[in-house]
Structures are given as structure tokens and as C-alpha cells.
Amino acid sequence: DGEYERAFEYFTKAADLGEVVAQFNLSLMYREGLGVEKDEKMELYYSEEAAISGDPSSRYSLGCHEGGNGRYDRAVKHWIIAANLGDDDSIEKL
């Protein structure tokens, strides 16, 4: 558990500097509760930050979140962007 907490600290510092992989990893850590308490708002915050920075996996995740909440038009927009960035999972969803 200490390893996750240490990773969380480093990812947070890197994410604050705009590192997209760190932003994506923080979204996963908040979703799974690894080294930090589960927090859907923070998961979405870091997913959005990574997506804005061009991470296709984050766009895909945001699409799944939107689709799961019945906002299919928004989900499709995320998946189209991710598909254009080469995300195979988004291509499948479309």
C-alpha cells in the first residue's frame, strides 16, 4: 500500500506539470482507490485533463462514463475524438 501512496505523490506532482500519463494514472488510482480513497469527481477531473492533453484512453473512459449515465450524444463525441487518435476500443464502440 505504501508503494501506491508514493506513486500517487509522484503522479500528482507530474500531473500538476501537465504530464498526460500521470494524469491518466491518477484517474485510474482514484477510480480503483489505489493509494488514495476512491473519488469519482477526482477520477473524472484527471480523465478530463488527460483527454484535453490528447490521451485517447482517457477520451474512451469519458465516453464510457457519459454513456453509462445515458448521455449518448456526449459519449459518441468522446469516442469519435479517441477513434481519430487511434483508439481501437472507441472504434468498436462506434
Q: How would the global form be characterised?
A: globular
Strand content: under 5%
- Please tell me the overall pLDDT: 95
How would you spell out the order of helices and strands? HHHHHH
Query: In total, how many beta strands?
Result: 0
How far is it from the N-terminal to the C-terminal residue, by CA? Answer: 38 Å
Structural class: mainly alpha
If you compute it from the alpha carbons, what radius of gyration comes out, rounded to the nearest whole angstrom? Answer: 13 Å
What is the percent of helical residues? Answer: over 70%
- Largest sheet features: none
Which regions contain 5 or more consecutive residues with pLDDT less than 50?
none
Contiguous helical run count: 6
Task: Tell me what you see in this structure.
With 94 residues, the protein is mainly α. It contains 6 helices and no strands.
Which descriptors apply to this entry?
94 residues
Layout of helices and strands:
Blueprint: H1 2-16, H2 20-32, H3 40-52, H4 56-68, H5 72-84, H6 88-93
Helix pairs in contact: 1-2, 2-3, 3-4, 4-5
Question: What's the short version?
Answer:
The protein has 94 residues and is an all-alpha fold.
